[in-house]
Design goal:
9 helices, binds zinc ion, 256 residues, globular, alpha/beta
């Protein structure tokens, strides 16, 4: 019993310590390091489109365009890609790259696929981390044969959970901004904002979002997404969403 009280006291102390620290940090923070994560790569092609396009190549091209737009707009922002070529990076390492570079915003770029029966599916989807589904995220980690020690490291797990919790509201706001900008700036329709246990997001302790840009297995979406106009409009809308979020976060006091 005494032990339980010790643990509870420690947890409360830890939570309030983190809360104070995170709030203090947030007021000073600027979105000055942005992590763009091109999904898949190397031996992992992601989905394959009906015309043979690999998702990994599409993701990288959009990530590179987005990086250029951000760098042209902000001379004081560091834009870091988790990969800038066709190479394989473990899912958990993507979050680690983001954390080690002191990233303030994490945007993961993907494209979707569907089975032939799902003929009505098209458009973009936005994913936030779902803390309830955390066990599934852990299961995904073991699927990728990453060391069991991650599962056993309870304290760092607890810390990650707390930090992520505090960012969930901000990530929800981020998703709404992305939804608005992608709807305005592309022909793609919104399929909604979802909360999923993505390992790549679980590892990142900053506002994070995963964008499924559209369906490479949908003829209409594919034609648009692989066209020059489509790629331009998509990258531009992602850029505008980041710019609006950055502005809100830094100047409007939306998150403070
Ligand atoms: Zn993907």
């Amino acid at each position: 019993m005494k032990f339980i009280i010790y643990i509870s006291t420690f947890s409360i102390f830890l939570i309030s310590f983190l809360d104070v620290n995170l709030n203090a940090q947030r007021i000073e923070d600027k979105i000055d390091v942005i992590i763009i994560d091109a999904g898949h790569g190397g031996k992992d092609p992601g989905t394959t489109a009906i015309d043979g396009t690999f998702e990994k190549d599409f993701n990288l091209e959009i990530a590179l365009r987005l990086k250029l737009l951000l760098e042209n707009a902000y001379s004081d922002v560091k834009v870091i890609l988790t990969r800038d070529s066709d190479k394989f990076i473990e899912l958990t390492d993507r979050g680690k790259i983001a954390n080690d570079s002191n990233g303030k915003l994490f945007v993961s770029i993907h494209a979707n696929s569907k089975s032939p029966e799902e003929s009505d599916k098209s458009g973009f989807e936005l994913y936030l981390l779902d803390m309830v589904g955390e066990d599934n995220a852990l299961a995904q980690i073991s699927d990728y044969k990453i060391s069991q020690s991650i599962k056993d490291d309870t304290l760092s797990h607890l810390l990650s959970s707390l930090i992520l919790h505090s960012n969930l509201y901000t990530s929800q706001r981020l998703a709404k901004i992305f939804s608005t900008e992608l709807t305005k700036g592309t022909v793609l329709k919104s399929r909604g904002i979802f909360q999923q246990p993505f390992v790549v997001l679980w590892g990142a302790t900053m506002p994070s979002i995963l964008v499924e840009c559209g369906y490479l297995s949908d003829e209409g979406n594919l034609k648009y997404l692989t066209s020059e106009t489509g790629k331009n409009e998509l990258a531009n809308s992602l850029y505008k969403a980041i710019a609006r979020f950055k502005f809100d976060y830094e100047f409007q006091g939306e998150f403070k």
